[in-house]
Amino acid sequence: MILVGTVTRSVGGIFTVMLDEEYNGKNYIETRAKGAFKHENITLLAGDRVQVAINENGEPYISKIEPRKNSLIRPPLANLDVLFVVISCVKPSPVLETIDKLICIAESKGIECVIVITKADLDMDFAQDTAEIYRKSGFTTFVTSSENGEGRDELLSYIASRDENTIFAFSGASGAGKSTFINKLFPKLSLETGELSQRLERGKNTTRKTELFPLASLLGQGHTGYLADTPGFTLLDFERFDFFDLEDLFDTFREFRKSEGMCRYTKCSHTKEEGCDIIARVQSGEIPKSRHDSYVSLYTILKSKPKWKK
Length: 310
Fold this sequence. Notes:
The structure is a single chain. Helix content is 30%, strand content 24%. The strands form three sheets. It has a six-stranded mixed sheet with strand order 10-9-8-11-13-12, sandwiched between helices. The chain has a five-stranded mixed barrel with strand order 1-2-3-5-4. A two-stranded antiparallel ribbon has the order 6-7. It has helices at residues 36-39, 96-108, 124-136, 152-161, 178-185, 187-200, 215-219, 246-249, 277-283, 289-304, and strands at residues 2-11, 14-23, 26-33, 49-54, 60-65, 71-72, 77-78, 82-88, 112-118, 141-143, 167-172, 211-214, 226-229.
């Protein structure tokens, strides 16, 4: 017998798999993975779609991992569909280059980025200006406030509109109000995580692994998909880590793509050349200057990296 489901949690080699169909009256199962995974250096991640086999003794074990759409190192997560990038209006203003690095990594992995601007009640002008940057760049953007609830219903409607089994995650710089906002958006999440911590006897200083919470348990029956509760996105250092090559940088800026083949020079770097269609669009205001500044910064970093022989 083969069961199919999604890995939602891993503790001490025991994996919780949320099943597509009930088994013995439960919609989840807790089991181990087959030993061959360890020998093949395969690490199961939260978000993995797996097959669970039942042996002749009635004991379940994870027998196969379905092909991944994408995977991340930090946080350890597979098959992420939507990343909500949280930007706070609190001064000092966030560094948009850092935001754009995160967006580029997500874009390179086929993860849809949605911009969420929080604490808009503290600086509405900044909120609207930042929203304009990312809307103009082609991203769905929400302006929100945990204080007055602005944007909450619209964001929940967006989540509800997605396909079944969609995995969502939130990310943002320290102080962006991500945790406060998530708890306002999903009041039941703090109860779920608190109960889990007690059950696992997990202390505050213990490194938290990525866990998936079914939206049905957070928003009520009828909601599908999962919210990834993660320790955060901690790898943004393009000098030390290889997220993608210089040749792939162009495609991680979605607003650039319509300029492909439109520059005067075939090998245009889109950083300073005369006749560059992207620079012309920046000068006309079609492309936000901050986005092009981020591109130039990343281009410089990636161009200077040595290509080590493998």
